[in-house]
Every structure is written in C-alpha cells, then in structure tokens.
Amino acid sequence: MAYFENINKVQYEGVKTDNPFAFRHYNPEEIVLGKTMKEHLRFGIAYWHTMTQDGSDPFGSPVNIRNWCGETPMETAKNRVEAFFEILEKLGVEYFCFHDVDVAPEGDSLEEFFQNIDEITDLIKEKMDQTGIKLLWNTANMFSNPRFVNGAASSNNADVFAHSAAQVKKGLDISKKLGGENYVFWGGREGYESLLNTDMKLEQDNIARLFKMAIAYGEKINHKPQFLIEPKPKEPSSHQYDYDAATAMAFIQKYGLEGDFKLNLEGNHATLAGHTFEHELAVARCYDALGSIDANQGHPLLGWDTDEFPTNVHDTTLVMVELLENGGIAPGGINFDSKVRRSSFAMEDLFLAHIAGMDTYARGLKAAAALKEARFFDELKEKRYASYTTGIGAKIVAGEEDLESLTTYALANDEIKMESDHLEFVKSRLNDFLF
C-alpha cells in the first residue's frame, strides 16, 4: 500500500522551480569541497515526530491527519514501518533514528514489549535490506512511562534502574541487529526537582554505572556503536544533569568515559540552555567530542522545546561551519528531530517540512563552504590573535614564561595598544556570504 500515492520521489529542480515537492537547493550529488552534499549532510529522519506525533499540545487535542492507524496498536505499528520507509525513499534520505517505544507498543509487560520490538524490527530490517537505508541511531525511551517519574538510571528506586538496564540491553541488541552506527542516551528525566530530598552524587554515580554497563555489554556482543549523550537543560526536570555540552563533558571526564562517549547536540536544546547552537558545537569540538546533531530550531518567543524544522539560513550556516571544521559529522549525521506545526496537520506537510529543512541545510553548507574557501573566519582569528604568534605571546604559548618574567615584561611595557574588532562590519560581511 502507498500511503503518499500523490507524492512522487522528490528531485532537485533548482531555485526557479514552483514545485513545492522539489528541492530548490539540496542537490545530493553536487560536489562541495570535494564531497557530495549527500556525504556532507548525512540526513536522518526521526521516527517519533514523523510517525507518532499527533499534533496535540497542552491546550488542544490531536489534529494530525494520518492514514496508517489500524485496528490494534501492533497493526498501526506495522503500517507505520511501511509509511516511514516510503517517506525516506521518496525524500532520498538514507538514515533514520528511533526510540524503542516509537516503533512498538509497550503492551502489558516488559516481556511483551520486547516481543513487540522483535516483531517490528524484523519488518524494519526487511525494509532496510530492500532499500539500503541505514540506522543512524536508536535509543531507549526512559522518560515517558510513569515508572520514570523520578528518572531512570538516576531514580531513587533500584527496580527502575534494573528496568532501565533491561531496556538499554535490548536497545543494543536491536542496534546490532539493524547495524546501528550510533547509540544515544537522552536522560529525559535524569535530574531532580529539589535538593531537599536528592542525593546528587549517588544519582550521577548510578548514571555512570549504567553507561559503563552499556560499554561492557557492547564489547561482549561485539557491537560497538558510537555512544552519544544528548544534553538538555531544564524541562522536564527542574535541574537536568546533562544541562549543556560543557556539563556533559565534565560528566564524561569525571567518570573516564572519554574514549567511548561523544555528544549528540540539538539546536533547540542549545536555545533552552541560553546558548547558540554553534556555541554547543564549538564546545564539543574543543573536546574532540562532536558526534552527531539533531537539526531543529526553537521559537525565540517561547521558552520550551518547540522542535521546529530549521529554516534559518544564518543559523544553519554557522552550524555547517562547525561541522566542516570538525572534518565532517560521520559516523553521526543530521537528524531532523523536528515536528510539523499544529496548523500543518496534512499528510503532505511531512514532506514539505523535511524539504524545507533539507534545503536550508544545503544553503548553509554552500555558504559555509564559501566562507571556508575565502578563509573568512581564519583571517579574522589570525589577525585578532596575532600577538601570540611572535614576541612575548609566542613565548607564553610555548610555555617559556612564568609570573616573574611576565611581571618584568609588563613593568617595561606599560602602554598597551588595543585594536577594535569592528564586529558590526564583520557581521555585515557575513551576510554577503549568506545571501
């Protein structure tokens, strides 16, 4: 059965097309800096927002029109697999991501849940074998069920920890079965509401214990995907342990996880943490820990996780600058952790939204490539930090100075000349590359 029978495979038609179901900027085979766009961007689609999100919000009932709902939860789950791969094939996207509960109903017990997952992932594997589409990453949803009210690995209840461990084990078994390239830990409720009744050290120690169990099990089954932590501040807990990239890296270093874990960073989560997306990516790059990204954007007037499709060329350009400086994103990718707006409830909006996001990232890639070829940022930084390449600055960098020698230097060079950054002009010049 075709779930989108009126939509053909989406093709690149260029900026002059008036076809809404065509790419205007994303040309997968176009060469940019020696690689195809497809290789640079490694697009993935999120199963949860695409297949299970119903358009409801805290103030309104579901509005999304979807034709894959069956008579039973398992029938719906099977229909979703068919519809999802139709979307992937028609968009030409080669990767996808999912939580365990996205693809299979939980049923009445953990055993039934695992049986459902096995049945549905058998279908997914068939579709993967038929199409060549690959699993970018999967993860365990350990935040939605009421058992996770106080967290998963950070829960005060050891039975919840054990249940979480079982879900992670199953997730890694599925990852091996489907050839997953990454495995994500998103601690949706790994945090606390109040310190009055919280043992913060025990909770963080327990999270690290679960991570180390995952590493050990991956080695045992001879499957070692790139493990990723996805930082997020605030909601749903008042204080999340993985607040932002810097906080997550402090955790990784404290528990000796550097060789096994990198970061999966999301645009909207950066906004909620009070950062720009490029800031979070730059922090991860400083630690050689930029693993993968979730491509979306937040709404500047709303203080919650809106997960909008990315359409801001300025922002995606600066994201792509970081990815190019990182030497690419593989084995990670650019996963659209994005949901259509409540008013975009038609089936076709799933295509229109992803086309918009893919075109925006393609524009960002092309602008970032032009900036790199022009050495725009390189020249700015070389000029700004020129004092560290000669004289006293070079000696500081080389470790040849100490407090006493620098005091002697400062006393003899009391007149310091500062130069303007001309930042407004720099931003204006950046616009020339964007448009």
Question: What would you say this structure looks like, in words?
Answer:
This protein is an alpha/beta fold. It has 2 domains: 11-373, TIM Barrel (Alpha-Beta Barrel); 390-434, no CATH class. 46% of the residues lie in helices and 11% in strands. It has 16 helices and 14 strands. It has helices at 37-41, 47-52, 73-91, 100-103, 110-131, 158-178, 200-220, 245-254, 267-272, 277-286, 313-325, 349-373, 376-384, 391-397, 403-412, 423-434; strands at residues 11-12, 22-23, 31-32, 35-36, 43-46, 95-99, 134-139, 182-185, 191-192, 226-229, 239-240, 261-266, 290-294, 334-336. The strands form 4 sheets. An 8-stranded parallel barrel has the order 5-6-7-8-10-12-13-14, surrounded by 4 helices. Helix 5 packs parallel to helix 6 (158-178), helix 6 (158-178) runs parallel beside helix 7 (200-220) and helix 10 (277-286) runs parallel beside helix 11 (313-325). The protein is globular. 40% of the residues are buried. The model has no long low-confidence stretch (mean pLDDT 97). Homotetramer. Keywords: Carbohydrate metabolism, Cytoplasm, Isomerase, Magnesium, Metal-binding, Xylose metabolism. Mg(2+) 2 binds at residues 266, 269, 305, 307.
Offer a few descriptive terms.
single chain, about 425 residues, TIM Barrel, eight-stranded parallel beta barrel, 16 helices, 14 strands, isomerase
